[in-house]
Amino acid sequence: RAGATEGLVIAGFAAFLPKQIENQFSISPVWSALLMGLITVPAGGGGTFLGGYLIKKLKLNCANIIKMCLIMTTISAFFTSCFLLSCPNLAFAGVTTQYRREVLKDSAKEMTNLTDGVGRSYLGMQLQSSCNVGCGCSKLNYEPICGADGILYYSPCFAGCLEEYHLNQVKIYTNCSCIDKQLFDSGDAPDATNLMCKSTCHYLSYFVGLCFVLMLFTFLSTMPALSATLRCVRDDQRSFA
């Protein structure tokens, strides 16, 4: 059961940790997957090797191996606090912030706090604005882009972009009616790109370090736990352990 639980945790890390890093720290999927590899491969391989080496080097008996597993598991549980580190959401036009060129008369009413019937409030989602009302945009086409104003837009259509071209595998958008880059002194920079907007959060390095230690101590108890299991069962039942 312990092995199955540990395997479930590791499988969950492999499946969802890249997406967790991508969403919480606003980085691209490529960098997220790369960081995942930098965390799991050295920590997993090193922890597994080090756990077996310590058993052999210290010549631990079964009772001491179990104590070692308990200590390593307790330490790894402490470092799960790394998941408390998170960054604020990026400004998302029509979701968490208003369009900067919003000029509809009733826009203030549409974007004010609404209630859900039980006293809680939330920001009304209004992707359509005066700058993209004639574009015929569909919410089915989710293709987020980052504007020169540092705001994330649902798609080039909702940003009111009329022109698109490619530069070094990056999509460049110009003539975007919802983005006023002159307000941000962006010079010759394009109105928007399909890259992630830069985040002002600096917790990523701390998260990577803590997560590395977490993975290291998680795998550090793998070989000792297996060794203790094999030593606790009879020889004719070890194939079932």
UniProtKB/TrEMBL annotation:
Pfam families on file: Kazal_2 (PF07648), OATP (PF03137)
Membrane topology category: Multi-pass membrane protein
GO biological processes: sodium-independent organic anion transport
SUPFAM superfamilies: Kazal-type serine protease inhibitors, MFS general substrate transporter
InterPro entries, per database record: Kazal_dom, Kazal_dom_sf, MFS_trans_sf, OATP
Gene Ontology cellular component annotations, sorted alphabetically: basolateral plasma membrane
Primary localisation category: membrane
Localization terms from the record: Cell membrane
Family: Belongs to the organo anion transporter (TC 2.A.60) family.
Name of the featured protein: Solute carrier organic anion transporter family member 4A1
Originating gene: SO4A1
